[in-house]
Design brief:
The chain has one domain: Thiol Ester Dehydrase, Chain A, CATH 3.10.129. It is globular, with a radius of gyration of 15 Å. The protein has three helices and six strands; from the N terminus they run ααββαββββ. The chain is α+β, with helices and mostly antiparallel strands. Strand 1 and strand 2 form a beta hairpin.
Length: 142
């Protein structure tokens, strides 16, 4: 079994529309083998009770960017991937505006991929979080 990999930005955005990326409002502006960029508008529903952007929202954005990059970079014959480790450092936050996540691969192997991601505020480019994400590449059984 092989998966269909989107080829256009419209297809990438549509692929997640009925899932968590769509629910959160992620908008992908670049999905290439060596760079993924997505934006997310900060709104109350994505925050914590204290009015700041929830760390789970930021983590979901980064994990999704790394995941889309992994799918875009799957070796021929692979059937998918799964996140096996995600390390996050929260350095700041946002109460409004847009946040931007940029992800880059550190290692793209046959059994694992490792991606780094940064989430920045759109208004002043301040880094609010750094991530390292390890993905296990899935292969057909048998």
């Amino acid at each position: 079994m092989s998966i269909t990999i989107p080829t256009t930005l419209d297809e990438w955005n549509a692929a997640g529309a009925d899932y968590l990326p769509g629910l959160l409002g992620m908008k992908f502006t670049k999905v290439e083998p060596d760079e993924v960029i997505a934006t997310l508008e900060v709104r109350r529903a994505l925050g914590a009770w204290n009015g700041y952007l929830h760390a789970g929202t930021v983590t979901s954005l980064a994990d999704t960017c790394c995941g889309y990059g992994t799918v875009r970079s799957l070796p021929p014959g692979a059937t998918g991937f799964t996140t096996v480790e995600l390390k996050s450092n929260m350095l700041g936050t946002a109460r409004e505006g847009v946040v931007i996540c940029t992800a880059h691969p550190i290692h793209k192997g046959r059994t694992t991929q490792v991606w780094d991601a940064e989430v920045r505020r759109g208004d002043n480019n301040a880094v609010i979080a750094c991530f390292r994400n390890t993905q296990l590449i899935l292969w057909p059984k048998g």
